[in-house]
Amino acid sequence: MTIAAPQENPVVTPAESASAGVTVGIPKETFAGERRVAATPDTAKKLQKLGFEVLVETQAGVGASFTDSAYEAAGCRIVPDAPSLWHAADVVLKVRSPQHHSHIDRHEVTLLKPSSTLISFIWPAQNPELLAQLAEQGGTVLAMDAVPRISRAQKLDALSSMANIGGYRAVIEAASNFGRCFTGQITAAGKMPPAKVMVIGVGVAGLAAIGAAKSLGAIVKAFDTRLVVKEQVQSLGAEFLELHFEEDGSGEGGYAKVMSPAFIAAEMALFAQQAKDVDIIITTALIPGKPAPLLITQEMVESMKPGSVIVDMAAEQGGNCEVTQPGEVIIHQGVTIIGLTDLPSRMASQASQLYGNNLVHLLSDLGGAENFSIDMADQVIRATTVIHNGQVTWPPPKVEAPAPDPSASSAPPAAEEIPTAKSPLSKILWPLLLGGVVVAIGLWAPASFITHLTVFVLASFLGWKVIWDVSPSLHTPLMSVTNAISGIIIIGGMLQISGDITSPMTILGAIALFLGTVNIAGGFMVSQRMLNMFHK
Amino acid sequence: MENNLVTTAYIAASALFILSLAGLSQPESAKRGNLLGMVGMAVAFIATAAISQGYPIQLGSIGLGVMVGALAASRVAMTDMPEMVALLNSFVGLAAVLVGFAEYLQPSAALVGADVIIHRVEIFVGVFIGIVTFTGSMVAVAKLRGWVPSRAVLLPARHVITLGMLGAIAVLGAPFLTATGTTPLMALGAMTAIAASFGIVIVLAIGGADMAVVISLLNSYSGLASAAAGFMLNNDLLIITGALVGSSGAILSYIMCKGMNRSFINVVLGGFGETASGAGQAAALEGSATSTTTGEVVDLLANAQSVVIVPGYGMAVAQAQHAVAEITRMLRAQGKQVRFGIHPVAGRMPGHMNVLLAEANVPYDIVLEMDEINDDLAATDVVLVVGANDTVNPSAKNDPTSPIAGMPVMEVWEAGTVVVLKRSLSSGYAGVENPLFFNDNTLMFFGDAKTNVNGILAQLSTAKTTAAAALSAA
């Protein structure tokens, strides 16, 4: 299924012949107000490094401050309109899911060639009709929102990179709608109290918001149902608000799950209490496949100080705040509620750069231009591909997140059984041998030997117990100390030395004494030297 | 009466040795542990001196020994600690051989019947362990110093040769135990010669990176040699001390083997790395490595919040630990989180990296073990890999066909960006290519580790001074 081999399954083959390169097309986004673009001049260069030819629709990057000439300077070809771009491109990279194109009065879906591949945000769960229409076109579609959240796929994870930007922007929007400074200062003209910011939902966006608010100088508190994020919150210098409640909300893929009613009641009480105190609330709480949970009621909004700001980053999924108007900035009884749904697009230049990099990594994982293929055996690519050659392949077969654990824990027992079955002899051989030796010693050895053996065996076990406690960082000093104490062999030498200097025993003993002393002196001194270096 | 006093002194010394090792469990109590060891040694020495004779000779030997030992201990560089430990191991081995010979020359007249045989067995075994420890350690020193090639040197049919040697030694046991006159002494001498070459052949066949196991093992042997001397001399203090040292070395060898996911037998049989290279080539890697410059690395570090440094033997070879420590101090002063991740088999000796970093004044509480830091790597912005290779190889985890499959490794590839300081793209000791170098988030910083680390350090400090200057100007 590589492009070099157009066989009976050629639909995935974007190029007609093996010699022609694979062309990547970057159309201008059509969604109203969308300023991002799927490739910047910088990422276009990286795409070319992967072997792709890059076509850019004219004015595609203008919203993100990338001019046509910048793209041309990066080696891209500028195409005058959308239809010719979609026609020429084997792979189309977009940000927003296909929309109705008002300029040419055609839906973008109809521009998709049967042999080509579209990569963009799709949201297949929310847009089943779009998915069906795309499938009819017969092409292949990869949804950037379907990239699985596993560590290997982090570099492809556009949701995270966009959420990061969004979280940052949310703080900026809040700051610009807030009548005071974020940072506290005492000046000649009087005292400026620091702003108090509460972040609800500490995912990527929440963390970015905490970081941004903190670096503007605000006092930041954060809440999340997942207790695992507590450390991350604290590492950013924010306070983690805790309910004293035994329930952890960690769900699948790093998202939160729905909590019990008792928990929610406690949580709401906390928010109600905090709402009276804080100046800024930023909510980012989402539960996958469900409308955003309602966390800030109208009553809480009204209890806030006039001039306070709420940024509802979940506005697109219905909002975490009862009075949010998606896409709008409204003022409700003196409190500004920001329900903007295009936060990343408001930082178009940076967002495009990150999204473009996500796409470069994806195309690189797809084999670059030379080995471009959709490898459905790859877990990441399988999950991301929502339509393969006109076949809807979404949702992907469920790979349960905890699944590797049971399989991993069931594998070792299986592995253990094999050797047991293979060599029962070797398993009983050692105990038998050992038993034999013990019996032989018991039968023939003299009593004095047995006494020494007792001491030896007990001391070995004692040593085994004591040494396991030694911190690995001290293993080298441990070796030099054992070097030193094994110099105890001098006792042997000392006892063998007699007054007669010519007797061979004395000579041997003296040499042994010398060697042992080198060990004792050298070992202890070098240990001391090393240990003196260890400090906190 | 006097004898009882000596015995109780020995008991006290044994207890002090045990407390000494127990003290080493934590850096805080380690110095006291070392001190207790010294006290124990002094107690044992004084007690023995009270019942021995020939003081002038003793004094001469001891004076000379203390001088040599003190000189060596104060002069040795921390990078050379593996050699020092190996050398001290060899001394115990040789001393055990000498004690064994001396003991044979003056058997206690009191022994009769089975006791004589047992006594001779003890001597035979003691001398065998002692001489193997001695020659094996000498070869280890030579390898670490580079006097002989550090790669595995394999004789043709070496398994046949070593088995033959062991057979010959066993055969020589019979005349030694039973014959009279000078025959037993000849047999003992012949056995010593064969066992000496046995030690050489065995250690020659073990490659450089397995030296950590070999040194631990020889450390264990040196303990067993002491214990064997204790059996021949009827001395429980020697037995206890030998057993303690023996188990210490055994545990360290075990930890090292586990760190490489290899069985003990596999390491001792040697030859690793020579045979594996074929398989390594088969899994040849595609893709290109991205190389980087000092400026880029400095930028990365300047923008990072958390940095983890993973040192390997390369850092010791390049003597880069002081510059690395200086960078650490500088970054920490800027409020960044800087920590070290130490793989159990990094370096040529257990704990080697820890000692080097301690020498360079790195606080030990930011030097973490692999297991402590592996989970944090995903949340780390920048990982600096300084002269490590196999210990950061992802194929140990991802590629079941890899020769190092299953070996626990530092999962540095999880971090935001990995900067690898290395001379070239060549494969590591295990002969396995490292896919890490070709990852998208890996930057290769080629060249001598010390030069490069110093370069980073220089730019970091100028960046700092310019920033300070700008601040004061404003």
Automatic annotation (TrEMBL), chain A:
Domain of life assignment: Bacteria
Reaction equations catalysed: NAD(+) + NADPH + H(+)(in) = NADH + NADP(+) + H(+)(out)
Membrane-traversing stretches: 197-220, 428-444, 450-468, 480-499, 505-526
Domain Alanine dehydrogenase/pyridine nucleotide transhydrogenase N-terminal residue range list: 25-166
Residue stretches making up the Alanine dehydrogenase/pyridine nucleotide transhydrogenase NAD(H)-binding domain: 175-339
Enzyme class: translocase
Membrane-topology annotation of the record: Multi-pass membrane protein
Compartments where located: Cell inner membrane
Matches recorded under InterPro entries: Ala_DH/PNT_CS2, AlaDH/PNT_CS1, AlaDH/PNT_N, AlaDH/PNT_NAD(H)-bd, NAD(P)-bd_dom_sf, NADP_transhyd_a, NADP_transhyd_a_C
SMART domains reported for this sequence: AlaDh_PNT_C, AlaDh_PNT_N
Keywords, sorted A to Z: Cell inner membrane, Cell membrane, Membrane, NAD, NADP, Nucleotide-binding, Translocase, Transmembrane, Transmembrane helix
GO molecular function: NADP binding; oxidoreductase activity; proton-translocating NAD(P)+ transhydrogenase activity
GO cellular component, one term: plasma membrane
Bias (Pro residues) ranges: 394-405
SUPFAM superfamilies recorded: Formate/glycerate dehydrogenase catalytic domain-like, NAD(P)-binding Rossmann-fold domains
One GO BP annotation of this record: NADPH regeneration
Bias kind Low complexity: ranges: 406-417
This protein's record includes keyword DNA repair: no
Region (Disordered): 393-417
EC number(s) on file: 7.1.1.1
Role this protein plays: The transhydrogenation between NADH and NADP is coupled to respiration and ATP hydrolysis and functions as a proton pump across the membrane.
Family: Belongs to the AlaDH/PNT family.
Name by which UniProt lists this protein: NAD(P) transhydrogenase subunit alpha
Species, as recorded: Shackletoniella antarctica
Automatic annotation (TrEMBL), chain B:
Domain NADP transhydrogenase beta-like intervals: 7-458
Recorded topology in the membrane: Multi-pass membrane protein
Keyword Aminoacyl-tRNA synthetase part of the UniProt annotation: no
Tagged with keyword Transmembrane helix: yes
Recorded catalytic activity of this chain's protein: NAD(+) + NADPH + H(+)(in) = NADH + NADP(+) + H(+)(out)
Job description of the protein: The transhydrogenation between NADH and NADP is coupled to respiration and ATP hydrolysis and functions as a proton pump across the membrane.
Species, as recorded: Shackletoniella antarctica
Protein name: NAD(P) transhydrogenase subunit beta
Keywords, ordered alphabetically: Cell inner membrane, Cell membrane, Membrane, NAD, NADP, Oxidoreductase, Translocase, Transmembrane, Transmembrane helix
One Pfam family cited in the UniProt record for this chain: PNTB
GO cellular component: plasma membrane
Enzyme class: translocase
GO molecular function: NADP binding; oxidoreductase activity; proton-translocating NAD(P)+ transhydrogenase activity
